[in-house]
Amino acid sequence: MASIQWRESYAIGIKQIDDQHKQLFDTVDKLFTACSQGKGKEEVGNALKFLEEYTKVHFRDEQQLHDQYNYPERFIHKEVHDNFLKTFTELQNEFNEKGAGVLFVSTVNKLFLDWLIKHIGSMDKAFAAFVKGQQK
């Protein structure tokens, strides 16, 4: 099971979003640890519930910033967020039905590693570059 740690290279330069990303990385790492250590269903379930609420708040905050800066890619970015939430809901349903087996742990690992690193590295950094351009 991979560990996922925040690196400064993931920072986009918008403090509010970077702080949320750091907390998200920390929580996902705790979820990975709980899954890989075979922690009880309740502990993994609590982590998933926290992530569900947290991602909704984080996405809302990002989308408010998109609107505030009239970001031209905001609708595409929102669609990507919505697709992530749909996938996450499916993952939660799988967990509720089958628990945290090997396949579940692998899926969680891939989903969050891909999402956090790729999404932040491309879409969120593109938004930050747009904001910096607007502030000049």
Largest sheet geometry: none
How many H/I helices?
A: 4
Report the mean per-residue pLDDT as an integer: 86
Give the N-terminus to C-terminus distance in angstroms.
43 Å
- Give the class from helix and strand content and strand pairing: mainly alpha
Using only CA atoms, what is the Rg? 16 Å
Let me know the number of strands. 0
Contiguous low-pLDDT stretches (5 residues minimum) are: none
Description:
The chain is an all-alpha fold and 136 residues long. Helix content is 79%, strand content 0%. It has 4 helices and no strands. It is elongated, with a radius of gyration of 16 Å. 14% of the residues are buried.
Helix and strand topology:
Layout: H1 15-36, H2 41-68, H3 74-98, H4 102-134
Helix pairs in contact: 1-2, 1-4, 2-3, 3-4
Summary tags:
4 helices, mainly alpha, 79% helix, 136 residues
Question: Concise description?
Answer:
The protein has helices at 15-36, 41-68, 74-98, 102-134. With 136 residues, it is mostly helical.
